[in-house]
Amino acid sequence: MTPQLTDKYMVTIAERLTSAYVRIIKAAKNAQRNSNEITLLAVSKTKPCEDIITAYEHGQRQFGESYVQEAVDKIAQLQPYSDIIWHFIGPIQSNKSALVATNFDWVQSVDRIKIAKRLNSQRPDNKPPLNILIQVNISNEEAKSGCHLDEIDELADYISQCEYLTLRGLMAIPAKSDKLETQTQYFKQLQTCFDKLKTQYPHIDTLSMGMSGDVEAAISAGSTMVRIGTDIFGTRT
Ligand SMILES: *Cc1c(COP(=O)(O)O)cnc(C)c1O
User: Model pTM?
Assistant: First the structure.
């Protein structure tokens, strides 16, 4: 018989958060990088506000959400935690762009001009410009969001001219693979795009790649932001 899971054996969010940091530090060391260059984004989608507060109380400040309505409700409830930095990382439908423009600090999933245009016109002008990452469909999956590699330049050019948007870099979710080699290959491709973009926009500073399953490969390829959900908050149902 399997033993009952009791509190004694439950790993807390605080412990998992610490493990996530340890993992980043180790991966950075292996890649001969400074771990201070890498931000941990805690992906709290589908998880209750209590879990976010627990992570907050253990020092976490940057959180990622994927579903607009769920996120907007949570952001409203968590208003007292005014130094939380909210990142939108999910697909954006046109009819939800105003909610995204109003409630978030970052949007990592901009993959077409139409959405950039809407976010720019809908960003309240009493707020700082919205930080934008261009999402790239690096492994060219049919069903995935993200622009194609050859669309990055046009989109970057558009965003850089938007008064209420600040281009900060690139984001990708490559096809799932258990092989470190395959993961690294995709991440290196994105790193090349990022380096190229940076020659034209020297202020860009964020390469968002790496999730619970591929943090090491992402960090070895220059990731500056890893987005971790499951390893911090547990599996999602
Ligand atoms: C859900 C999600 C994550 C977190 O994935 P985990 O495997 O749970 O760490 C990261 N990035 C994006 C864009 C996501 O939608």
Answer: 0.94
